[in-house]
Amino acid sequence: MLRREGKFAQVIIASPLKEPLTYAIPPLMQGDLKIGMRVSVPLGQRRVTGVVMGFLTETSLNQVREILALLDERPILDHCLLQLIRWVSQYYLAPLGEVLTTLLPASLRTENQRVIYSCPGKFPQAQGLERKILDELQEKGGKSTLKSLARRIQGGGLYRALNRLLAMGAVEAKERTKGQRKKIAELIGKRESLPQERALFSLTAEQQQALDLIQQRLRKGGFETFLLYGVTGSGKTEVYLRTMEQVQKAQKRSLILLPEISLTPQLLDRVEERFPGRVGVLHSALTPSERWAQWWHILSGNVDVVVGARSAIFAPVPDLGLIVVDEEHDPSYKQDDGLRYHARDLAVVRGKLVGCPVILGSATPAIESFENCRQGRYRLIELTERVEQRTLPSVELVDLRQEVKSKGREVKGKKPAGAPQPAGFGLFSSYLREALQQNFVRGYQSLIFLNRRGFANFLQCRLCGFVLRCVHCSVAMTFHLKQQSVFCHHCGARKPARDLCPECGNLSLSGVGFGTEQVEQELRGLIPGARIARMDRDTTSKRGSQERLIRQWEKGEIDILVGTQMITKGHDVTGVTLVGAILADLSLNLPDFRAVERTFQLLSQVAGRAGRGKEAGRVIIQTYAPDHYAFPNIITHDYKSFFASEIEFRRDLNYPPFSRLVHLRLEGPRAQEVEAKARMVGEELRARRQREPKFQEQIEILGPAPSPIEKLRSRYRWQILLKGKKSRPLLELASQAREILPGSRSTRLYIDVDPYNML
After folding, report:
1. Which of 358, 388, 418 is the last residue in one of the domains?
2. Where a domain ends, among 149, 173, 197?
3. Can you say whether residue 8 is alpha, beta or left, with left for phi > 0 and alpha for psi between -120 and 50 degrees?
4. Are 741 and 681 in contact (CB under 8 A)?
5. Cβ contacts of 254 within 8 Å, gap of 6 or more
């Protein structure tokens, strides 16, 4: 039986619900309530905050509860963002509420910070509960938080009474959290300055051609994706900035995504210089009140450019005219927990929904992105030369096998890739050591790259072979010298380091392998007097520490910087003339079909940090696998040749971009239970594939099998990989995995569409 009395609203709440909930719209709200507004609604015995997704004139539900309060004066999510929410939910197989939780700042997902103000005047029509509210406000000096009112005035009807008072103008309601009014005022103070006329340096012919192509699309209007493939130092950022200026002149706004915003203060400086007072910033390092303030600042149209990390793809930018994804290949654009989305892919989807151009920029594009150019889905724009006719750095390989032999320590038998150095070998080859010393004497800066932090990879007993492992994860703990502790870099577990072996009782535990901390220590002994710093997660954990370190680096206050992949991203320091990669093999043999691609990207990007000034750059790469097919292309800076080799490998094994993947992972505290349920899910998926013709020829099921890291944070992990040519049947079968797995409090199923990390 259909109910037709009044109107109904479909509301999504920040809860893992698949579909919107239906609520009746009170008569006082009808006409004021709009799609995209926040509302307070009852859910069980609680009051929660939701967003209106749509309206219904009728419903078949027997009982429909009313919306309690309207929380906004105007919509906070526009039509395109609401469409994006639905698309994300459907494609990534995520509940609508989970998408909303990711999109909205935490302070916007609650009404507890609403402040109620009484308005001057007498309101004789206010009776009963309404009068009680006004008396409470008067007693509190004319204002009170909604939370305080709800605590003092028990029983139902509070929100309906407040709505009536709001309608008669007796009270006002405003959103506020601690410190937010001050922050908003500070932001407003910055709005007044507008971009000033300035002298611009001349663009290269390639930069101008790129700009002309993109501006043609801006003039025509509509959606198009450009892949701006430019070698390191070719001036991609300047193309971004000038395009954004054209967007601003058209009275529209731009959104630019960066892999890790805290690591690129230089680019932020350039954006703020070009658009003074008109830049909004969104990233995870902001406090809740700062994020709240920036979010409203952006929504209000007070900025022309929004700069942010991956979550900024959901920023409420009105009149969006351009989306830029810098370093589009970077894996940090993929969210690995919670809502497992890829910001680069969502940028393309949002651009299509809005009808604006999207620019993807990189010196080492993702294989999928370059293939999209070949297939005509994206338009390729190339920048093949550095600005100001600067040359690309020379790249040299050091064969560590020969280095070992030359020192009289020839390793017997086959040495696995990435194995630690023999005792006493040293971290630096004689060739790299000499180059570092010469570079320091000449007064130039050097960069040392090793994608492994800590002092030693693990502690091992020299007598019985025991390895100290994390009790919560199936991985060895990493030794850190400064803290005299061992850490698990996966779960964060920590314990003091000891020499005593817990297995045999001998004082024989010692470090094996090395990390950035040991590299830093050895450098201090190698080049006395050099100002040496280290950039990894251990040295940059405090707020603002990353930016301070980068500023010192840019000012020339650091002679040698040692770091992990953090140092590979976007830094333009003219004093850097030497880059050394300690052990380039580390990521080559990971159990991941993208391992070679990531190695090529990392080494190419870190190599690109050298020679950005007048002095030519030099790159020295130490490796045990100099014959690997990736290295010749790194030496010649030849991405296209690398792509030609890698794309054939992907084609032969039917990996993306020639297929789509969905990663199913089961986790739980009991190993046998997780294994049993993983096998049950795998068998049922195979049975359904056999029964359904649409699945039979299009989907391959791999597994179940233990995850490469079988135990993580005290939870055992098994995985199943679905591989298919088309997304629709693949997603349909993956979604059925939730139906197969019976409800369990212990074993949980996680679905990752287009996975990037399957460890």
Report:
1. 388
2. 173
3. beta
4. yes
5. 243, 244, 247, 248, 304, 305, 306, 320, 321, 322, 323, 324
Q: Which amino acid is at 234?
A: S
Q: What is the mean pLDDT of each run of 10 residues along the chain (759 residues)?
A: 64 88 86 89 87 90 86 88 96 93 82 74 78 83 77 68 78 60 42 42 90 96 96 91 96 94 74 92 80 87 93 95 96 92 97 97 96 97 89 91 66 38 62 94 92 72 82 82 79 82 80 80 91 84 78 88 80 84 82 89 89 86 90 94 94 93 94 93 92 82 90 91 91 91 81 90
Residues 619 and 397 sit within 8 Å (Cβ to Cβ): no
The helix (H) or strand (E) run that includes residue 545 is helix 545-554
Task: Name the pairing type of β-strands 114-118 and 171-175.
Answer: antiparallel
User: Total domain count for the chain?
Assistant: 5
Burial level of 178, CB count in 10 A (0-12/13-18/19+)? exposed
Longest dimension (CA), the chain: 99
524 Cβ contact list (under 8 Å, min separation 6):
530, 532
Domain assignment of residue 554, yes or no: no
Partners of 460 in the β-ladder? 467, 510
By residue range, what is the domain housing residue 476?
456-513
- The two three-digit tokens of residue 643, written as one number: 């792509």
Return the CATH number at 63.
3.40.1440.60
Say how far apart CA 40 and CA 47 lie, in whole Å.
Answer: 6
Are residues 211 and 324 both part of a single domain?
yes
CA angle 640, 582, 403 (to 5 degrees): 105
SS3 assignment, position 596? helix
User: What's the rounded Cα separation, in Å, for the pair 748 and 535?
Assistant: 36
Minimal CA–CA distance to 86: which of 78, 94, 77? 94
> Does residue 270 contact residue 324 with C-beta atoms inside 8 Å?
no
pTM over 0.70, yes/no:
yes
